[in-house]
Amino acid sequence: MTEIVFEHVTHRYDGGDVLVDVSVRLTERRIGIVGANGSGKSTLARLINGLVEPTEGRVTVDGLDVSRNAREVRRRVGFVFTNPDTQIVMPTVREDVAFSLRRLKLDAADASARVDRTLERFGLAELADRPAHRLSGGQKQLLALAAVLVSEPSILVTDEPTTLLDARNAALVDRHFAALDQQLVVVTHRLETVEHFDRVLVVDGGRIVADGAPAESLAAYRELIDAVEAP
Ligand SMILES: Nc1ncnc2c1ncn2[C@@H]1O[C@H](COP(=O)(O)OP(=O)(O)OP(=O)(O)O)[C@@H](O)[C@H]1O
């Protein structure tokens, strides 16, 4: 079991506090984070693998302080960004997926078999030799997921992984999520993605304002949105 713990975490950018005294312990396998634009979701997700450090408080992953053990934590926590262009580092699709395996030092045949399986799983096998930067936005998003999952992190954190995907590919990603062995933390505006998760957090104004089973959390979120939209 993996464990992500926030202890009284506040995060401040120049403009002010974007997360305020957040304490939460996450051990469930499928965790969704929803909330309005600018509510602090991405900041919360980025704190999990040290992309952002707490201004106050502490974040640990399996007992490791994320600020002090960044390298070890990043081996465990795979992170997929909203914009896949920021994540593509190699010329072709296959090379990009293979690149993630370099630090595992597998032998060439093992690495190649793992890359093939991953490309197949994400429907990218036929695009393997294409220039990665010329894929469509949605194909790039699938590539970004494949390139992170090929190294089999124990936790996967994704920030709006389906934004660029059509309905079919968004559903494909949802099915991948359902089948993953890893602990999964998904920040999303696509509420369907988290409907069958174990736990959903609702973030508003830098605080967790609802936290529980998806039905209750999503109902609370819808109420929050309705309250804002009401004249
Ligand atoms: N690097 C930064 N420097 C200064 N302010 C930032 C930075 N990153 C985010 N912010 C601010 O922090 C607040 C929370 O941003 P965050 O990206 O965490 O929200 P979010 O809930 O993920 O939003 P969205 O749904 O729009 O992606 C916003 O007001 C944003 O403008």
From TrEMBL:
Database matches in Gene3D superfamilies: P-loop containing nucleotide triphosphate hydrolases
Keyword Nucleotide-binding included in the entry's annotation: yes
InterPro entries, A to Z: AAA+_ATPase (IPR003593), ABC_transporter-like_ATP-bd (IPR003439), ABC_transporter-like_CS (IPR017871), ABC_transpr_CbiO/EcfA_su (IPR015856), ECF_ABC_transporter_ATP-bd (IPR050095), P-loop_NTPase (IPR027417)
Annotated ranges, domain ABC transporter: 4-230
Keywords, alphabetical: ATP-binding, Nucleotide-binding, Transport
Keyword hit for ATP-binding: yes
Name of protein: ABC transporter ATP-binding protein
Organism of derivation: Agromyces protaetiae
